[in-house]
Amino acid sequence: MYNLILFDDPTIRINLLPLTFTRPTSEMRIGIRTITEKWMGWLHAQPSFLTETYLQRKYAYLPTGDNLYINGAVCPNGALVSAVAELESGAGLVTPDGLLVALRTEKSLGLAPTAADAATTRIVEEPLTIVRNLPDLFINNGEQIKADFAAMTAGRTSQPITDPHTRCYGIENIFVEEGAVIRAAVLNAEGGPIYIGKGATISEGTVMMGPFALGDHATINWGGKMRSNTTIGPHCKVGGEVSNSIFFGNSNKGHDGFLGNSVIGEWCNLGANVNNSNLKNDYTNVRLHSYATGKPEDTGRLFCGLLMGDYTKAGISTMFNTGTVVGVSVNVFGAGFQPKHIPSFSWGGAAEGIADYRLEKALQVIRETVGRKNRVFDEVEEEILRAIYRMEKEEPLDQPTDQAS
Q1: The domain containing residue 372 runs over which residues?
Q2: Distance (Å, rounded) from C-alpha 302 to C-alpha 199?
Q3: Is 283 left (phi over 0), alpha (psi -120 to 50) or beta?
């Protein structure tokens, strides 16, 4: 039996920063599940990861004598899984443009494999969902919700929706896991499935449009307006209006405010009345900060909102412009539209100016944030954050005189 290893393609990983600062590519959530969880479900195998050195203590790399390397940016489907199952040692699968999708080999590779590492290759002609750039996450989220919904609910029976004040449309496309609570809501699954995870809560006055996914133990607050192609990950609390967006997990947007065409990492908090723009007034393509080039690049898309790394917080009434990228562990606040790129470990905002977020203060806040959900921020997580700080702050900004919350 082969040994499953999910690897980071270096070029793709850079394009997916800041979300891949804190995780391998496959640990991003798209649809209901992470890409890792999708491959685990299809192949019934526990993976290890070939990723950046500073992440390997948390995400172990465990090669053996029969390794199946799979590109962590590629979402599985039935045709691809069948092709992977047919691979012999030394054989690889590539896309028409030469991107390595999968490689089976007896070798233990020290670097991410490429097509050159395969003795023979076969081109995958079937359409694939590959997360090559940040907007690909929300662009493909609706279709991935549908794919995950089909895989996760096949042969199973949904828990009944018994609340007399909840109205459902297309109830055959709604699946409710054990322990979920739904009160006085409108669920419309006529345009796509709605998945409600274990122990999740949909509060009074919520309007929800499919495709939509609500993770385990996540909550939609009172009067939430949840538009289609949206995923709220596990243990999130979300309110207001959300459209075509993804919350990875453990993040909060508890109050009113609009979020559209956006991706929010883990352990983030958006204060009351935080809003983002997702469409420019002149209807031209959105430009997005690229970590690969260090400058804004054309996304080729009219709609693109906020891309936010883990452990970041936004104060009340913060406004994010179209195509804004915010790094890891940022505390942003204040009047006016914020800069369209805010580096990791930054403190402040457009009106006040942005300064370096002192590392020890940032780590203290993160410990408190994680502890509020009865989780432990351990030495391994701290080492990852310290490594990111070194990468992002080789020339530290002037520190503010006071960072009291």
Answers
A1: 137-392
A2: 37
A3: left
CB-CB contact of 218 with 196 (8 Å): no
Looking at the DSSP bridge assignments, the partners of residue 328 are none
Nearest to residue 72, comparing CAs of 5, 134, 8? 8
Same domain, 44 and 171: no
The residues with which 70 forms a beta bridge, in sequence order, are 6, 102
Separation between Cα atoms, residue 241 and residue 149, nearest integer Å: 23
Phi and psi, residue 15, nearest 5°? -65, -20
Beta bridge partners of 241: 225, 258
Nearest CA among 44, 12, 37 for reference residue 25: 12
pLDDT, one tens digit per residue, over 73-110 is 999 999 999 999 999 999 999 999 999 999 999 999 99
Cis peptide before 18 (omega within 30 of 0): yes
DSSP annotation of 211:
S
Whole-number Å distance between alpha carbons of 361 and 39: 38
d(CA 286, CA 300): 7
Q: What is the CATH number of the domain that holds 7?
A: 3.90.550.10
Q: Which residues contact 130 (CB under 8 A, 6 or more apart)?
A: 12, 71, 73, 74, 75, 95, 99, 136
Same domain (yes/no): 164, 80: no
Strand intervals (E) in 215-260: 219-220, 225-226, 230-232, 237-238, 241-243, 246-249, 252-253, 258-260
Q: At 329, which amino acid appears?
A: S
Question: Quick check: helix, strand or coil at residue 143?
Answer: helix
Instruction: Please give the C-alpha separations between residue 184 and each of 95, 208, 316, in angstroms, as whole numbers.
Output: 47, 12, 28
Convert the pLDDT of each residue in 301-314 to its tens digit: 999 999 999 999 99
Q: How far is CA 292 from the centre of its chain?
A: 19
Per residue in 16-58, pLDDT (tens digit) is 999 999 999 999 999 999 999 999 999 999 999 999 999 999 9
Whether the per-residue pLDDT at 13 is higher than 70: the answer is yes
Here the tokens at position 405 are: 């919350």
